[in-house]
Amino acid sequence: MSDFRVKKISRLHAEFSVPGDKSMSHRAAILGGLSNGICTLRNFLPSEDCVNTLNAMRALGAKVEIIDELPGYGPVNLRIHGQSMKLSPPSAPIDCGNSGTGMRLLAGLLAGQPFSSELFGDASLSSRPMGRITVPLAQMGANIETKGEKPGCAPLLIHGAKLQPIAYEMPVASAQVKSAVLLAGLFAKGKTSVTQPAETRDHTERMLASFRVSTRRDVNTITIYGGQTPEACDFTVPGDISSAAFWLVAAAALPGSRLVIRDVGLNPTRTAILNVLSRMGARMIDTLHQTDGEPIGNVEIHGAPLTGTTLLPEEIPNLIDEIPVIAVAAALAQGKTTIRNARELRVKETDRITTVVDNLRAMGAQVQEFEDGMEIEGGHPLHAAELDSHGDHRIAMAFAIAGLFASGETVIRNTECVNTSYPGFAKHLDAIRHERTDPADFAMNLSATPSA
Ligand code: S3P
User: Fold this and answer.
1) What is the spatial distance between Cα 82 and Cα 53, in angstroms, rounded to a whole number?
2) How far is the CA of 323 from the centre of ligand 1 (A)?
3) Within 13 Å of residue 135, how many CA atoms lie on the same side as its CB?
4) Which of 299, 311, 324, 443 is least enclosed by beta carbons within 10 angstroms?
5) What does the alpha-carbon distance between residue 280 and residue 309 come to, in Å, rounded to a whole number?
């Protein structure tokens, strides 16, 4: 088992890029595998979650050729041969590992296939709610058995069917649910629509457009017509703003620091973290250099004394994955930060309300826990602690950042989980911890692979 050991830093001057976006990498693997030709995917995230989705598409018949890979992790540049919407039955159950996105999107895809298939995952994924996707997919005609020990949980045994289109109103604001219904809708005859109670990340809609599949958006309702075949295209995945968030918080909370994160995704359904850090007092400029499809740019941030803030209800889906590290920023800020309307955090890789509150308290922060969030009275000095990630990548990384501001040596146990979303985090942490500024200290070296 690996640990992170972290001490206080006094300087952060760096410029680097983070690995590819997790949400987009899942979607690129799925749509590439469904498309009508060969798609070159660049800067794919070689994390366990996304490699599992890529392997799922392989198991469903798509051939994958690796161009370059990150040794020890997985492919970064690859070609995927699309199956023109005709998938083959997998010969074994499909492993989704730790990934809710992988499982829920694949379930949407598999619901409309003329065969049965099974999706399973690790202990954390097997305890996460799947009713949110099995309910709409069953309304479309699929028969999905949830075989987990906990009711409504994975493994999922999916008996695909000829699907009927539906107009579905999602009870929770979830991009995973929206995407599962849209992917199923691609295989249904006629018009499927899904209405979200609040705006959620729109990568599926944007990526469908890159693959020339049309969808229509009318306020918070997204409509897709079935029977469209994604047209093969090449796609470069921008850096993941949720991975950048860890360093953005570290720089924001350290007066005198300067950090540039290059080539990161700046999709407005994901950038609320930047608004929150600006509101807390960080100085920031973002420069867009791609505006069509998925916006990409650089973010430059300068640290300043931070003050607390209140997260707005409509911001929550936009920054749901960043809340653990925002809570760390809140503990380092003067005054109160209020995070409410975030009950969804309780059904992520861990119950992130409890894991964040417990770990912050162990470091000396003042936090009050609520059913749907927490209130943090910032400005109390943090001290080192021995913490557990509980197998949750974002908890491991958020508390590595907290350790950069605590007296003594903070130890975070059980940190292999960071590989589910951020291969190379340990290298970047090491460079920041030792206050290195040379871009070479942040570079991830790829090796070319002759064939799949
Ligand atoms: C994701 C959507 C979010 C997010 C997850 C990735 C996606 O989950 O927490 O890490 O790629 O669609 P929900 O849509 O369930 O909120």
Assistant:
1) 14
2) 13
3) 13
4) 443
5) 6
Q: Record the pTM.
A: 0.98
Would residue 321 show up in a list of annotated catalytic residues for this protein?
Answer: yes
Residue type, 247: W
Q: What is the set of domains in the chain, with CATH numbers?
A: 4-20+238-442 (3.65.10.10), 22-225 (3.65.10.10)
Q: What is the pLDDT of residues 59-70, one digit of tens each?
A: 999 999 999 999
Residue to substitute in 53, 200, 201, 267 for testing ligand 1 pocket (most ligand atoms within 8 angstroms of CB): 201
pLDDT at 292: 81
Name the residue among 236, 306, 296 with its Cα closest to residue 271.
Answer: 296
DSSP 94: E
pLDDT of 451 above 60: no
* Active-site position among 240, 321, 388, 392: 321
Closest CA to 303 of 386, 404, 195, 168: 404
Q: What pLDDT score does 450 carry?
A: 56
Query: What are the DSSP calls for 244-285, one per residue?
Result: HHHHHHHHHTSTT-EEEEEEEE--TTTTHHHHHHHHHT-EEE
Nearest C-alpha neighbor of 4 from the set 411, 325, 360: 411
What pLDDT score does 452 carry?
A: 46
Query: Which atom number of ligand 1 is nearest to the Cα of residue 242?
Result: 10
| pLDDT confidence tier of residue 335, bands split at 50, 70 and 90 | very high
Distance (Å) of CA 99 to CA 95, 111, 286, 338 = 10, 18, 30, 28
CA distance 251 to 415: 22
Q: What is the mean pLDDT of the chain?
A: 97
Would you say 11 and 423 are in contact if contact means Cβ atoms under 8 Å apart? no
pLDDT of residue 90: 98
Distance CA 244, CA 241 (A): 5
